[in-house]
Amino acid sequence: MTRTRRAAGFAAATSLMALAAAMPSLAQDAPPPPAQTAPAASAPAAPAAVVPLTEGVVATVNDDAISSYDLTQRMHLLILTTGVQPTNDNIPQIEREALRDLIDEHLEMQEVRHQEKEQKFTITADDKDVTEAINHMAESSKMTGPQLLATLSANGIAPATLREQLRAQISWQRWISGRYGGNRLKVSQTQVNAFYDQMQAEAAEPQFQISDIFLDATRAGGMDQAVAGAQQLLTQLQQGAPFAGVAKQFSSASSAAKGGDEGWVPRSALPAEVVAVLDQMTPGSLSRPVAAKGGVYIIQLRGKREGAGADMVSLKQAAISLSPSASSDEVAAAQTKLMALKRQITSCDDMDKAAAKFNGVVAADLGEASLKDLRPDFRDVAAKLKVNEVSDPIRTDVGLHLIAVCGRRLSGANIPSRDEIEQHLEDEQLSQLARRYLRDLRSSATIETR
How confident is the model at residue 186 (pLDDT cuts 50, 70, 90)? Predict the structure, then answer.
C-alpha cells in the first residue's frame, strides 16, 4: 500500500475503530434484526436516570441550532457506548462532553460543506458510507448492523443519532486526509532515525504497560473540577464501566482514540507523580486520581517489566583467508583489496554482490548475536558501527575481515521497524493538524450555549 493511501485511510479508520471499541459487548442482549424497516417513530423515551431537557435550542454554532433533543440523544449514546451509569453527580459531566462533541461536529460539517462549494467536489459521506461503518462497528461486537441499530432503539436512542455522528466523522476525516495526507506529510529519515534511537534508549529502562485517562484541568474548569471529575469516572470504572469506552469519550490524552492504551511506556516518559503511584500498584489494578502538571490521570496498570537486556546485532562479513604467519606484504595486499571493496558497499544488502567482484573474498551472513558474546576484536568494532556501516579491515588469526552491522536491537524490546515508525510519525502529524484545524475553526466561530 502506498504512503498516500495509508495516510488517507488513517484518520477515518482510527475514529471508527475507536467508537467500535467503545461499544460494550451487547451481542448477547441484542434483539433479532427486524424483518423490515420500522416506520419512523417519535422521539424515543429517555432512560429514567437522564432527566429529559425542556424542548428547545441549547446551543447555536454559526447560527446552526443544536436542540435539546439532539443533546439528550447524544447523552444516551455516550452512556451506552462508555458503559457509564448516569447519576446526579455525573450527569453534568456527561452533558458537557455530549454538547462539546455536537459543537465540534457542527463546525466540522460546516467546513466540509464550505470546501465542497469551493472545491467543486463531494466530501460528505453518503448513506452507503455510513451503513458500511455501522456494519464494521457491529462486526467488532459480533453483531449485524440491524442488530446494533435495534439495540440502540431498545435503549432509547434513535439510529439517526449514530448515523449522523458517523457521517460527520467520516466526512471530516476524509477532508483532513485529502487536505494534508499523502505527499503533503513530510517525515524525514532523520526523524525516523531519531525516533528509533529514542525507542532503543527507552527500551533499556524499566517499563509499565498502561492505559490512561487524562482530564485536562483547563478543559474541566480547573484542577479541583478535574479531580472531582476523575473521582466520578473512577467510581464508574470500579462499578464495571469499560476502561476503553470511558477513555475514548472523556480522556484528553492522545491515547483516547485507542481506548486509553499507551502500550509499554518507559519510566522516564511518565510524570514523577504517576511513577510514584505506579511503583505501588500491581498489574490489573486502577490508580486513584493522580494530579500532575496540566490535569489529572487515572491509570490502569496492565504489566511491569525490567528494561530490555542484551544489545543484539546482526552482522555480515567479507573476508580474505590468511594464516597467522602470513607476511606483511600478503596482509597489506589483502588490506588494499578489502578497502577497495568497502568503497563499493553502500549497505548490507549489496555486500554479497560487491564481494563477488573480488577474487579471494568470501562474503557471509554471520546472523544475530549478543554484542557481549562476540569475539573481542569484532565486539569492539561492532559496538561503534551504525546500521549498514562497514568497518575497516580487522586482522584475526584466520584472516582479514570487513564486518557490517545489518541490524541492532535490544533483546526483549518490541521496537517497531523503520517503516512502522515512519507511518506512526505520519499519523501523528495528520492527527495534530486535524486538532489544530478544528481549534482554529472553534476560535473563529460564533458559539452560543443556553
Answer: confident
